[in-house]
Amino acid sequence: MDDLILIKYGELTTKKQNRKTFIKLLADNIKKILDGEEFNIKFDRVRMYIECNNVDSVVNKLKKVFGIHGIVICHKVNTNIEDIKLKVLELLKKETFNTFKINTKRADKTFNIPSMEVNNIIGGYVLKNLNTKVDVKSPDILVTIEIRVEGTFIYTNEIKGLGGYPVGIQGKGMLMLSGGIDSPVAGYLSIKRGVDLECLYFESPPHTSIEAKNKVLTLARIINEYSGNIKVNVIPFTKLQEAIYINVPDNYVITIMRRMMYRVSERLAKKHKCKVIINGESIGQVASQTLTSMAAINSVTNFPVIRPVACMDKLEIIDIAKKLNTYDISILPYEDCCTIFLPEHPVINPDIDKCIKYESTFDYEALINECIDNVEVITNLKEDKSDLL
């Protein structure tokens, strides 16, 4: 093993008595995502260290692991001032810069040279051997020296991690995943807060196409890169959706359809031991997402519902989608259940009593049971479906 990667925890360090649980789960998640790599991992309550041969490949994978605040490629030396001086100079000779700063953190108090004195000693040694200057406010390069019990770690560049919590620390949520822009972003933001995801997708063949389904699977594959545990439950929604169009006035079709989707989602979430339902609803964005509509739709369930993008505007959501590389997939023109047969004037302030009246005209319970009984579960998201779009 030639290289050592140091992981900084960030927000996890605020967890006090629960810190060990968070860090252990983070280590387990890292081991999963590094499957196939040659590595050795050690951790304590302050830092995590990964020894590996292929540092570039490992770092690229770590960039998609939630719970990591910072990633640094560091060099371990014996804790004596001469070894520290030589290693710092060796590293700086490989860099291009005009100004530098030395920042020492002395966690091991048995080392008898105070941090400020180490800064002065190492800084002076660099000035004698290189044509450079010290800049303590905005240096071109910052050299960090961490003096710890297990050794001294030296590094120059820190790669920002995703932050957040390790995936799974909060339990599991059921994401209502469509082919649109919002729901993949909602899924990503939920993963960031430690929620392990399962997805469900409502398909309605022949009204929706195989391309629409593959589009959703591609979106699921992208967000699965941040989790590694996602499976997609494909709900056969045709009979239930057609019953809605036959029995419900046009302007209430979307409201009733969303109420049915919530019922299906709740039952599947409970069946799969999920703690919450998650979706990409954003206040006021469409007719079914006015506050009145959301209240009427949500009234069919007491199950917790999380809407991570509820208070974002569309441009904010699009910005995240582009960073995730889901945006270009989401805008492909394949219609899903929420866009086919869209009425010209959907109701924006639905009345709950009317919703109940319209639903009483057909046996939706039997149709919901049929949806649940015939769900298709897709677990292999490593296969890229984008070439089928």
Describe the structure.
The protein has 389 residues and is of the alpha/beta class. It has 2 domains: 3-163, 2-Layer Sandwich (VC0802-like), CATH 3.30.2130; 172-388, Rossmann fold (3-Layer(aba) Sandwich). 38% of the residues lie in helices and 21% in strands. It has 13 helices and 15 strands. It has helices spanning 19-33, 55-62, 81-92, 115-129, 182-192, 210-224, 238-247, 253-271, 291-298, 314-324, 327-330, 352-359, 364-373; strands spanning 3-8, 39-43, 47-52, 68-77, 99-106, 133-134, 141-148, 151-155, 158-163, 172-176, 196-203, 232-236, 276-278, 305-306, 376-378. Strands 1, 2, 3, 4, 5, 6, 7, 8 and 9 form a 9-stranded mixed β-sheet that branches. The protein is elongated, with a radius of gyration of 27 Å. The protein starts with a strand and ends in an 11-residue tail after the last strand.
Helix content: 25-40%
Order of helices and strands: EHEEHEHEHEEEEEHEHEHHEHEHHHHE
Beta-strand percent range = 15-25%
- Name the CATH superfamily classification of the largest domain: HUPs
Number of domains: 2
User: Mean pLDDT, as a whole number?
Assistant: 91
Number of strands: 15
The biggest beta sheet is recorded as: 9 strands, mixed
Low-confidence runs of at least 5 consecutive residues: none
How many helices? The count is 13
Kindly provide the name of the CATH class of the largest domain. Answer: Alpha Beta
Summing up helix and strand content along with how strands pair, one would put the structural category as alpha/beta
Looking at the overall shape, the CATH architecture of the largest domain is: 3-Layer(aba) Sandwich
CATH topology term of the largest domain: Rossmann fold
Question: What shape does the CA trace take?
Answer: elongated
> In angstroms, what separates the terminal alpha carbons?
42 Å
Gyration radius from CA atoms, angstroms: 27 Å
